[in-house]
Amino acid sequence: MKKFSTYLAILIFLFLLSACVYTSNLKDGVTLEKGYGVIVTTMYSNRAEPDSYQADRISYLFRSIKSGGSSGSITMEREQELIVVSLPAGEYNWEEILFDRYYRRFDKSSTFFVYQNTITYIGDIKTELKQGDDNIYGYYKVIDNFDVVKQQLAESYPALSKRYKFKKLLTNLDSTIMLKR
């Protein structure tokens, strides 16, 4: 009986792990898995400004709308870093923004799409955080830099750019942040 419960625990762990997507930048020249597409974005913040909140990392967490679908995140560790991520095709909800020990959940209308065998530019994501006396406030918004990102992608990912079609479909992520300690 103990052996069975050990196997069951391992199977449950593997099932839960399979629902997560490790979202690191693709290498140029890779062939996408069947049913996958690519999202492209660049992330900006105001961390260099003196009155800004100095978050070490800013992550945007998302989940597939499909029942039991995969989840993942994109994280800004450096300013203006081109993020190129492969995901299963489908519609995704932004779930929350996470920085240091703070987070804010998004409503269900904040979405983006991944199309099979397509590179989709979802817009550049700009996050501005300021620190008040007893709270952190700011905003996040999507900026359309399609032509610039298309050129960056062609220079940094020439094989990927030639192999897959490139389209623009901006995510809807404009809002205000207000967090209390």
Structure description:
The chain has 181 residues and is an alpha+beta fold. The chain has helices at residues 2-18, 146-156, 158-163, and strands at 36-45, 58-64, 71-76, 81-88, 90-99, 102-105, 111-114, 118-121, 124-131, 135-143, 165-168, 175-180. The strands form 2 sheets. Strands 1, 4, 8, 9, 10, 11 and 12 form a 7-stranded mixed beta sheet that branches. Strands 2, 3, 5, 6 and 7 form a 5-stranded antiparallel beta sheet that branches. The chain is globular. 26% of the residues are buried.
Q: How many DSSP H or I helices?
A: 3
Strand pairing plus helix content: what structural class?
A: alpha+beta
Biggest beta sheet attributes: 7 strands, mixed
In the predicted model, the low-confidence regions spanning at least 5 consecutive residues are 4-22
Query: How many whole angstroms does the radius of gyration measure?
Result: 18 Å
Distance from N terminus to C terminus (CA atoms, Å) equals 47 Å
Q: Got a strand count?
A: 12
Shape: globular
Tell me what portion of residues adopts beta-strand conformation.
35-45%
The H-and-E topology, N to C, reads as HEEEEEEEEEEHHEE
Q: Give the proportion of residues in helices.
A: 10-25%
Mean pLDDT, all residues: 79
